[in-house]
Design a protein that fits this description.
The protein is α+β, with helices and mostly antiparallel strands. The protein has helices at residues 32-50, 115-122; strands at residues 6-12, 18-21, 24-30, 55-66, 75-85, 89-98, 101-114.
Length: 127
C-alpha cells in the first residue's frame, strides 16, 4: 500500500443515524457522530489489510467537516485516501458524498499495535 491508494465504504442512512441526544431528536438527518463513525470505518479498511493476526488498530484522531445533510434512505459514499503509513500509523483523508453533493470531509488516524500492548494500555488502572 502506498499514499494515494483509496478504499470506499457506502453507508445507507437510517433513522438510527439521526442526531439524537438525551433530550430527544435534534433533526432527522444523518448526524455528525454517525458520519464520523463511517469515516473511521472507511480508514479502518486499510488497517484490516495491514495488520497482522496479533495486531489491532486503535483510533488516534478524527477531523470531520460536516458540510451538508444526508437524508434517510440516501447512500453516503465515503472514499478514504491513504496519506501516510509508516508501519504502525495510518493517516487517511476522506470525502463523503451523496451523488455530487459533498456531505463531509476530513481526516482519520489509527495506529496498529500488538494486541498484547493494546490490552496493557486499555486495562483499567488500579486506584
Amino acid at each position: 500500500m502506498q499514499p494515494g491508494d483509496t478504499r470506499t465504504y457506502i453507508k445507507r442512512v437510517t433513522a438510527g443515524d439521526f442526531a439524537r441526544f438525551d433530550d430527544g431528536l435534534v433533526h432527522a438527518v444523518c448526524s455528525t457522530f454517525s458520519l464520523a463513525q463511517a469515516a473511521e470505518w472507511a480508514g479502518r479498511l486499510f488497517v484490516l489489510e495491514m495488520k497482522a493476526e496479533d495486531e489491532e488498530g486503535i483510533g488516534t484522531c478524527l477531523e470531520i467537516n460536516h458540510k451538508s445533510p444526508a437524508f434517510e434512505g440516501e447512500s453516503i459514499t465515503i472514499v478514504a485516501t491513504l496519506e501516510k503509513y509508516d508501519g504502525y500509523e495510518v493517516i487517511c483523508s476522506y470525502k463523503a458524498t451523496v451523488g455530487d453533493r459533498i456531505v463531509a470531509e476530513g481526516q482519520t488516524g489509527q495506529k496498529i499495535l500488538k494486541k498484547e500492548k493494546l490490552a496493557r494500555i486499555l486495562a483499567p488502572k488500579k486506584v
